[in-house]
């Protein structure tokens, strides 16, 4: 197998790269010797391409690629920078020192700023590169180690050894930062621009296909009038607004340093089971945004169901023994959550289970939910008591609510009580009243977290648990899910991609792979990228879990059949009291 | 406004007859006071006290960024008699402005300092110890000051801070001042910087007794100015870099009949920097200063203008009556500068960066109100604004 790397087009136009380098170089605080902005004057990538040795290829298709390379570069690339420096060494030396113990010279430290031209040449690089390419999401290059081996800095001050050494040291330090942090971002942005035309075309195609209308010049600003989806079903205005507005949100999927740190802390807490998870406002958590994952990737519906049922227990279940849900544990939650599902199944109201089933496929198959319901043996059995027509409108609402993280179970589900006389355990966490008025799937979660007031603190606790659980699950369900968040970039990927995925149109087409998502311009390769090394382990884990889930399912089905006949034993007191009790002791603490 | 502890240190210099102005480092002290003053940022409170003549404490609290503060203690073996109560202290001591040089005084004889008791010499060298810790940063400043002899002083200052190389730095400074000339030798542990400074005053030597009879010409044209020349040289052993500068100063003495003025010219031949300052005290309440910097390597130039204005309260109701009664009648005031309502300092440079400072006393509090502005930046004119309050007892 051979790859053909075409080096020449990269040499052609470097003006954009120059601009980006300029901004990248001026971003970090500069040493005191540099008293002006650093401007990249000339950038030549040279004619010698880097030597790449393929170590591993994780994913390979026509439009995507992921692999690890060993890179050796000893080419003739050079870079010329222009800036102004402080030529008086005493000045720079004293500027970094406290004035109390400074000699305080009278005029010996007076400054002399000199325009400086620095040429970086003879760059020797050697390192391991993780390259992820996807036609839609561009190129991501991440260095596993510090690639800079050596570098020659020639400047105006080569005759002064002190200044030369100083410059050499400072520039090497800056370049290391550049390679490790800034260069991946620059390359990604550049690659996005390179494919931006295709990217936009494809976006429009998808919009056309889903709307069956002629594409407007700016489909994002003016939603189509009478929209129907790919199956001919008319789309309701809320959905259209979601479709038309989401891409604009996609465009700004940049993250502040603070948020990235928080996300890193969050991912840390997943691994350490830390109780202190940072709250990230205006963020949609992967657990809620990515229920479409199993459909788009490997098909493990059991996992999704169990996770959802578990979530319901954490929010809505009574203090029955079934509520002993290991909300925090990431390893066994599928097993632990099973009994809770059983408790739901035991509820006589068939509707509740029907709703449960429908909720398990929240966003991925909007139009096919009925089909899904019938496919599901549990749902069929349980929803027998209630007519399907009665089910569907409710389900629709529930589905819309699903995108939102579950809020406090403070308000009991009045509707279900009145209609069926018994309390539906699963419902109250998603009340019809709480339905997002727009029905805008991605927007709803964004607006959710602030609504969690102090009074609902306790109920807030369970929320992290799905978050903890879900990425793990994704890893397992996805063919090769690496432990992400190695770098900041990946941290962004982790958080952006679920959002993007949830916003994407892929939920319509069930079989399309996640990488075909046309609307996510950011690093959505989190679904496919990362530690190939853990691939085998992940596969093994996935198989293991799938097996366990299957076993659970069988057991559950058996129990369902047993418990179907007897009347509900779970809801004993009045509904309101129950919910208050729930508030007092959220199930997350039971675990 | 000077920090309380700086004020106490100056009092120590004064009590031990050390002329801080007779040093190359203080060659352009006037221009620095009028042009390089610091404008406060944020709110800063200082409570200090000279609880005993030998011991002073000071606490500061500021809100630059987060709340930070410092605690400082000072011990002086020499009892300090100057008034430090904020309600009574002389504002001229606390506010640096135009420095009007006096005639050089003759250094103390060694034997003046000797104290004998029952055949034994029991006198001690005057010493000052000072320490200050900045609390959130855990930065420690320490100062050891010792008058080795009437013409010699050793000053060791140290800063301990984890952010510095080697965790801190120490500067040792040995100063000699015989009036006619002064020399300083210094060594800094940071990059092993060594330095020499010297200042020579032209004109008569204060050490030489006037033996010749005073001629008529000397009486007719008294010495009304002093001309000084100095140089400094630094060399860092570790980074093999150095610095050099020379300077000239002419300043008028008290028996100058016109406006007092000071001119300095400093030159850094290595870096090609030439700086000239001119300061004039255009009245008892007004001082003006200008500075022009020019670099003959890079042709960069800079101009700064500054002024200092003492505003005094006028009791207009009484003034006409006082004038009528006795034109040159001066009532003894309870404390010096009791009628000072405030001191305005302002500076501006050629880039329209402006610094304004309003200092004074309200009741028992000394206040400093300052702002720095940048008129070139329309979107953000105020670069910094702040207030400092000092109380001392």
Automatic annotation (TrEMBL), chain A:
Region Disordered: what ranges?
203-224, 316-529, 547-591
Compartment list: Membrane; Mitochondrion outer membrane
Q: Where is this chain compositionally biased, Basic residues type?
A: 358-372
Quote the CDD domains the UniProt record gives. Answer: SMP_Mdm34
Domain annotation SMP-LTD: ranges? 1-192
* Organism superkingdom: Eukaryota
Q: In the UniProt record, does the keyword Transport occur?
A: yes
An annotated GO cellular component of this protein is: ERMES complex
Provide the primary localization. membrane
Q: State the Gene Ontology BP annotations.
A: mitochondrion organization; mitochondrion-endoplasmic reticulum membrane tethering; phospholipid transport
Q: GO molecular function: any one?
A: lipid binding
The protein's job, in short, is:
Component of the ERMES/MDM complex, which serves as a molecular tether to connect the endoplasmic reticulum (ER) and mitochondria. Components of this complex are involved in the control of mitochondrial shape and protein biogenesis, and function in nonvesicular lipid trafficking between the ER and mitochondria. MDM34 is required for the interaction of the ER-resident membrane protein MMM1 and the outer mitochondrial membrane-resident beta-barrel protein MDM10.
Describe the protein's quaternary organization and the partners it interacts with: Component of the ER-mitochondria encounter structure (ERMES) or MDM complex, composed of MMM1, MDM10, MDM12 and MDM34.
* Stated family: Belongs to the MDM34 family.
Comment on protein domains: Lacks alpha-helical transmembrane segments, suggesting that it resides in the membrane via beta-sheet conformations similar to those predicted for other outer membrane proteins and porin.
This chain's protein is named Mitochondrial distribution and morphology protein 34
Q: Which organism is it from?
A: Lojkania enalia
TrEMBL record, chain B:
Please name the GO terms of the biological process aspect recorded for this protein, alphabetically.
establishment of mitochondrion localization; mitochondrial outer membrane translocase complex assembly; mitochondrion-endoplasmic reticulum membrane tethering; phospholipid transport; protein insertion into mitochondrial outer membrane
Which superkingdom? Eukaryota
Keyword Zinc in record:
no
Q: State the InterPro entries in the record.
A: Mdm10 (IPR027539), Porin_dom_sf (IPR023614)
Cite the entry's keywords alphabetically.
Answer: Membrane, Mitochondrion, Mitochondrion outer membrane, Transmembrane, Transmembrane beta strand
Query: How the protein sits in the membrane?
Result: Multi-pass membrane protein
GO CC entries: ERMES complex; SAM complex
Q: Where in the cell?
A: Mitochondrion outer membrane
The primary location reported for this protein is mitochondrion
What the protein does comes down to:
Component of the ERMES/MDM complex, which serves as a molecular tether to connect the endoplasmic reticulum and mitochondria. Components of this complex are involved in the control of mitochondrial shape and protein biogenesis and may function in phospholipid exchange. MDM10 is involved in the late assembly steps of the general translocase of the mitochondrial outer membrane (TOM complex). Functions in the TOM40-specific route of the assembly of outer membrane beta-barrel proteins, including the association of TOM40 with the receptor TOM22 and small TOM proteins.
Quoted from the entry, the domain comment is: Lacks alpha-helical transmembrane segments, suggesting that it resides in the membrane via beta-sheet conformations similar to those predicted for other outer membrane proteins and porin.
The record's comment on protein family reads:
Belongs to the MDM10 family.
Describe its assembly.
Answer: Component of the ER-mitochondria encounter structure (ERMES) or MDM complex, composed of MMM1, MDM10, MDM12 and MDM34. Associates with the mitochondrial outer membrane sorting assembly machinery SAM(core) complex.
PANTHER family found in the cross-reference section? MITOCHONDRIAL DISTRIBUTION AND MORPHOLOGY PROTEIN 10
Question: What protein is this chain from?
Answer: Mitochondrial distribution and morphology protein 10
């Amino acid at each position: 197998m051979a790859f053909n790397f075409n080096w020449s087009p990269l040499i052609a136009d470097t003006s954009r790269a120059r601009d980006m380098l300029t901004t990248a170089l001026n971003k970090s605080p500069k040493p005191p010797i540099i008293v002006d902005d650093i401007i990249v004057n000339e950038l030549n990538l040279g004619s010698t391409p880097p030597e790449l040795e393929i170590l591993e290829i994780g994913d390979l298709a026509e439009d995507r690629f992921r692999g690890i390379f060993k890179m050796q570069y000893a080419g003739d690339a050079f870079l010329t920078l222009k800036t102004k420096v402080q030529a008086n060494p005493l000045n720079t030396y004293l500027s970094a020192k406290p004035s109390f113990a400074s000699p305080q010279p009278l005029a010996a430290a007076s400054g002399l700023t000199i325009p400086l031209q620095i040429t970086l040449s003879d760059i020797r690089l050697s390192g391991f590169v993780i390259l992820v390419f996807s036609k839609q999401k561009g190129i991501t290059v991440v260095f596993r180690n510090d690639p800079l081996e050596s570098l020659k800095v020639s400047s105006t001050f080569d005759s002064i050894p002190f200044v030369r050494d100083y410059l050499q040291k400072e520039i090497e330090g800056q370049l290391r930062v550049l390679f490790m942090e800034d260069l991946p971002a620059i390359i990604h942005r550049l690659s996005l621009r390179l494919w931006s035309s295709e990217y936009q075309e494809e976006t429009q195609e998808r919009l056309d296909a889903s709307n069956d209308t002629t594409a407007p010049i700016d489909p994002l600003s003016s939603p189509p009038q009478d929209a129907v989806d790919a199956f001919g079903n008319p789309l309701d205005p809320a959905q259209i607004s979601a479709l038309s507005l989401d891409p604009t949100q996609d465009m700004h999927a940049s993250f502040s340093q603070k948020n990235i740190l928080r996300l890193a802390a969050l991912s840390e807490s997943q691994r350490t089971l830390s109780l202190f998870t940072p709250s990230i406002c205006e963020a949609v958590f992967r657990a809620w945004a990515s229920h479409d994952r199993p459909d788009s990737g490997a098909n493990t519906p059991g996992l999704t169901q169990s996770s959802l049922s578990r979530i319901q227990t954490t929010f809505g279940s009574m203090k029955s023994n079934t509520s002993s849900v290991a909300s925090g544990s990431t390893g066994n939650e599928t097993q632990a959550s099973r009994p809770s599902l059983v408790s739901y199944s035991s509820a006589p109201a068939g509707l509740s289970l029907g709703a449960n089933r429908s909720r398990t496929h929240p966003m991925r198959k909007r139009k096919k939910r009925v089909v899904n319901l019938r496919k599901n043996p549990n749902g069929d059995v349980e929803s027998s008591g209630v007519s399907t027509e009665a089910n569907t409108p409710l389900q629709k609402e529930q589905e819309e609510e699903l995108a939102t993280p579950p809020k406090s179970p403070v308000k009991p589900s009045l509707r279900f009580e009145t209609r069926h006389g018994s309390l539906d355990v699963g419902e109250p966490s998603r009340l019809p009243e709480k339905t997002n008025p727009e029905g805008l799937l991605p927007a709803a979660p964004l607006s959710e977290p602030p609504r969690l007031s102090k009074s609902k603190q306790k109920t807030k606790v369970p929320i992290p648990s799905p978050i903890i659980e879900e990425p793990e699950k994704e890893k397992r369900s996805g063919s090769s899910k690496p432990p992400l968040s190695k770098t900041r970039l990946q941290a962004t990927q982790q958080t952006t991609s679920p959002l993007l995925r949830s916003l994407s149109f892929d939920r319509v087409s069930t079989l399309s792979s996640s990488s075909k998502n046309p609307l996510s311009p950011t690093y959505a390769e989190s679904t496919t990228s990362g530690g190939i090394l853990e691939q085998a382990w992940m596969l093994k884990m996935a198989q293991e879990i799938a097996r366990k889930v299957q076993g659970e399912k069988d057991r559950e089905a058996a129990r369902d059949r047993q418990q179907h006949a007897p009347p509900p034993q779970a809801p004993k007191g009045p509904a309101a009291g129950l919910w208050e009790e729930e508030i007092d002791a959220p199930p997350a603490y039971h675990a | 406004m000077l920090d309380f502890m700086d004020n106490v240190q100056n009092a120590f210099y004064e009590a031990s007859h050390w002329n801080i102005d007779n040093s190359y480092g203080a060659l352009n002290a006037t221009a620095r006071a009028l042009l390089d003053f610091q404008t406060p940022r944020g709110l800063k409170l200082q409570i200090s006290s000279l609880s005993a003549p030998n011991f002073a404490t000071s606490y500061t609290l500021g809100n630059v960024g987060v709340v930070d503060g410092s605690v400082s203690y000072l011990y002086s073996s020499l009892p300090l008699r100057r008034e430090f109560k904020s309600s009574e202290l002389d504002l001229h001591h606390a506010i640096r402005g135009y420095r009007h040089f006096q005639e050089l005084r003759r250094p103390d004889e060694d034997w003046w300092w000797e104290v004998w008791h029952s055949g034994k010499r029991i006198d001690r060298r005057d010493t000052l110890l000072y320490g200050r810790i900045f609390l959130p940063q855990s930065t420690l400043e320490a100062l050891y000051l010792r008058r080795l002899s009437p013409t010699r002083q050793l000053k060791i200052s140290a800063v301990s801070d984890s952010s510095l190389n080697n965790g801190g730095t120490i500067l040792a400074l040995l100063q000699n001042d015989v009036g006619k000339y002064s020399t300083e030798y210094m060594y800094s542990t940071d990059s092993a910087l060594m330095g020499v400074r010297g200042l020579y005053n032209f004109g008569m030597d204060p050490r030489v007794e006037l033996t010749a009879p005073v001629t008529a010409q000397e009486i007719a044209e008294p010495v009304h100015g002093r001309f000084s020349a100095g140089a400094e040289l630094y060399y860092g052993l570790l980074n093999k870099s150095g610095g050099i500068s020379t300077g000239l100063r002419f300043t008028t003495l008290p028996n100058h009949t016109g406006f007092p003025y000071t001119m300095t010219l400093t030159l850094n031949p290595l870096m090609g920097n030439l700086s000239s300052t001119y300061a004039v005290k255009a009245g008892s309440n007004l001082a003006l200063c200008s500075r022009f910097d020019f670099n003959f390597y890079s042709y960069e130039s800079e101009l700064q203008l500054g002024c200092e204005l003492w505003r005094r309260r006028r009791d207009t109701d009484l003034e006409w009556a006082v004038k009528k009664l006795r034109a040159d009648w001066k009532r003894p005031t309870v404390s010096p500068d009791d009628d000072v309502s405030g001191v305005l300092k302002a500076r501006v440079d050629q880039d329209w960066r402006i610094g304004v400072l309003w200092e004074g006393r309200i009741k028992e509090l000394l206040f400093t109100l300052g702002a720095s502005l940048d008129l070139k930046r329309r979107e953000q004119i105020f670069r910094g604004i702040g207030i400092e309050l000092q109380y001392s007892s």
